[in-house]
Amino acid sequence: MSKKKDNRPNNWKYKILDLIVREGFLSDTIVFTISNYLATIATFFSSFIIRKVLGPLTMGLYTELMLILEYGRFSHLGMINALEREMPFYMGKGDRRKVEEVQKTILTFITLAAFNIGTALFIFSFFGNVNGTGIRFIALLIFIETIVSFYEVLLQSYGRFKWWSLAIVILTILEVALKIIFVIKFGLNGLLTAMILIGITTIAVYHFWGKCKLDLRVKINLNETWRLLKLGTPLILFRGLYLVSISIDKLVIIFFLGRLQLGYYSIATMVFNYLTLLPKFSYKTLYPKFMRAFGKKENLEDIKKYLVIPNRVFSCFYSVLIGLTIILVPFCVAYFLPRFRNGIFAAQIVAFSTFFSALLYAWNYLLIAIYEQKRLALLYGISAVITLVVNLFFIKVLHLHLTGVAFATLISQIIFTTLLICYGYGYYTRKLFEHLKLLFAMYFPSLLIVIAFFLNMAYYPNLVSVRRDLFGAVLSCGLFLLISSPLMYHTVKKYGLLERLFESKKDKNA
């Protein structure tokens, strides 16, 4: 039988799109992102009930306990981050023995580390003027959440995103129900008990139904432990510095503008948190494929395709989402959170900054893949310094207050994103023109966001008529989508997204 001739273009752009579509990246990303958004929305609504039941004073205590838990999550000293890097890397090499060794070593270390931290907190809970019961709950939660994080990396590495998405939705429904019931019945201790029960249930679900190959026998290998610690410590340092860099704006507001302005800025924080969920979960599905591809031959050319084309495609459609957000935020805040109107413009500018922060993920992966995690941590340290300096300049020199903080966030993000992309792309070429061409291709869709600002100015809500303001917002969105459609069409056509998607479905049905 003669083989049917394949007339599809034979270039690397189409090959990467074939790879992305046929390996399920698009479907994994869509399903995983939607499930996490649903979980976030459910948690968001349950938090209102929890606050209403506990009241301000008890919520203050709960916030303090959660801060201890947040820092307690660092007890693994970067070993979870090392697992996230090493598992898909050695899976790409086909080295099953090494994958099992890494799993056992890291599981042993994080179990002992979390147990030691928990024991120290348990002992501390009996001394001093502290909430002993709450501290004892946190000691147990640190251990449980460390194990949950371990299983989540396994699910990510094995690419079990569709099953994981279903589990997230089911577990979130159970979590919301338990938290509400227990907090109403037993107050703060009930809430903490619900968190423990959910954590134990999550571990059980992931272990028995996650289909992750895991040997639970203890494995103590001091040399491998030391190697993984050297790999993981800079990674957790980089994550920590990232948290510092994205929280500097809030720290500056606290020190120089006061609590009221921070309250207005909470709208910007909320917009930032929800917008960044999309790139976070989208690239999370790409990460194991990226590492497996590099692990096969450890050739930089094999992963270049993951750095360029996905970022170009993503930047196009993400800019449209940001533009729609910028148009709709004034209407939503003006009518649903009117006391926060002073934070609208800052929220719009911060929304713009997420466009540039979303482009960092793939370049982070590149430096992690080539064991440049120390350099990555240094770059994020530089980012934190840049952000602080620019914020202080806008606040202390230009006296722009809340708007100045938002502009400083945007400008510092543009500077750092450009710095990191150019540094990463320097492993492929040193030619200035090639760097400028790459930056132009990635940044060009941000012009759509600028257009969104102008459309919003033309149809800004005047609070005279809800119907009129809603019509103006919808009209602005319609015009924006019309203006954006040529770029979206060009992106879909240039990279053959629809053709690849339909071909993938035909292949599965063949």
Topology, element by element:
Blueprint: H1 12-22, H2 25-72, H3 79-93, H4 96-124, H5 132-157, H6 161-209, H7 222-256, H8 259-275, H9 277-297, H10 300-336, H11 344-357, H12 361-369, H13 373-397, H14 401-425, H15 432-443, H16 446-458, H17 466-494, H18 497-509
Explain the overall architecture:
The chain has 510 residues and is mainly alpha-helical. It has 2 domains: 26-220, no CATH class; 238-510, no CATH class. It has 18 helices and no strands. Helix 10 (300-336) runs parallel beside helix 15 (432-443). Mean pLDDT is 82; it is low at 1-10, 12-22 and 502-510.
Features:
disordered C terminus, mainly alpha, 18 helices, 510 residues, 2 domains, disordered N terminus, single chain, globular
Please tell me the total number of domains: 2
Largest sheet report: none
Rg, nearest Å: 24 Å
- Note the beta-strand portion: under 5%
Distance between the termini: 17 Å
DSSP strand tally: 0
The topology string of helices and strands comes to HHHHHHHHHHHHHHHHHH
Work out the oligomeric state of the chains in this entry.
Answer: single chain
Poorly predicted regions are 1-10, 12-22, 502-510
Shape: globular
Number of helices: 18
- The average pLDDT is 82
Helix content: over 70%
Structural class: mainly alpha
